[in-house]
Amino acid sequence: MAIVLELLSRKNIPLKHYKFEQDYVCVGRDFNNDLRLDDPYVCPSHMLVAIDPESGLLMVNDCQSTNGIKINNKFVTQATLSPNDVIKIGRTHLRIIDTKAPLPRAMPLSELEENLNWLNKAFLAVCLSFLCISYLLLSEYIDSVKEFKLIAVLPAQLGQLALFSLWPLSFAILAKVVKKESHIVNQINLTLLITLVFYVLSLLQKIVVFNVNPGAWFAFIEFVIFGILLSGFIWLSLFIAFHQATKRRNIIALSLSFLILAPLFTFGFLNTGEFDSSPNYDATLLAPAYNFTKAFETEKFIDNSQRLFSKLDKMKKD
After folding, report:
1. 184-212 and 166-179 are packed helices; what angle lies between their axes, rounded to 10 degrees?
2. Strands across the sheet containing 3-8
3. Rounded to an integer, what distance in angstroms lies between the CA atom of residue 186 and that of residue 116?
4. Same domain, 85 and 219
């Protein structure tokens, strides 16, 4: 009968398995132990896990350790072990594994995970970064009413891109801590791709507003599209970073999206009034590059104005 011990994290996440084809296992910090633990709170010879020759049961004995042994959060000096019992010595957690218990079936591979493998390319990150910076510089050039100087503008745009990189870096660090895989390239490429999508939508928004001047319904559609993209982005970031149940991932993604969107919506709503006695006018010239509609001729504009004033005079008389 083999003795199998599973090393756990503090959150009971399996880290490593140890299998011993013998009837006893000496556990401690000393190098002569069968299982050596690099834990300063574990004694050189801390405990002995052995199979009782008479009953065949698995037993644990405390070897007069300083900090003792806990079995399922209860201090013991000697105890009979059962499968899935968790032994705590020092700050180390070990679980007893039943080698005779049938293992569950393999988890099915996720098609989405396979489809996201194309994000794991460093060259793609370089290309997406170049596209994002190019868009920022082009947008700055088009919107600028002053002389455009690349040296003066480039640091700010690079800083903006570096600020966006904090999101994938934070997810990569958490993933490295939780499941030992950072997927940093995937996270960076996903963030750059979504950022590029937001840039394109921002450009389309400028074009529509400049040419059509839509009403409040357009702002609502903008908000809905932004919310969907943000939720999808957070969902994919969680999918790449952690192994989670779909329901839990959905709840976290929607909650984070709400926490981000709610203040933005509230701030925008509170700053939108029906009437302002002292309006502030923005004198910035809109970029002609965004204009796709035909400009009115002067004579046509005057005729339309006269027709409008005539209509107002008629309404006053009535």
Report:
1. 150
2. 14-20, 3-8, 92-97, 86-89, 69-71, 74-76
3. 8
4. no
In a domain, 15, yes or no: yes
Measured distance CA(125)–CA(191) in Å, rounded = 10
H or E segment at 3? strand 3-8
At 193-222, the pLDDT tens digits run 998 898 888 888 877 777 776 666 777 888
42's tokens: 């574990």
124-149 in b/e burial notation, b at 16+ Cβ within 10 A?
bbeebbebbeebbeebbeeeeeeeee
My answer on whether 90 and 131 are in the same domain is no
Secondary structure class of 124 (helix, strand, coil) = helix
Q: Give the pLDDT of residue 281.
A: 47
In a domain, 8, yes or no: yes
User: What is the span of the domain harbouring residue 39?
Assistant: 3-97
Most confident of 79-83, 106-110, 278-282: 79-83
How far separated are the first and last CA of the chain, in Å rounded?
A: 104
| Per-residue pLDDT reduced to its tens digit, 94-143 | 999 877 777 777 767 677 777 788 888 889 889 988 898 888 888 877 77
Two structure tokens written together for 182: 């950072």
Q: Which of 72, 94, 92, 80 is nearest to 20 (CA)?
A: 94
Task: Write down the pTM of the prediction.
Answer: 0.57
- In three-state secondary structure terms, 49 is strand
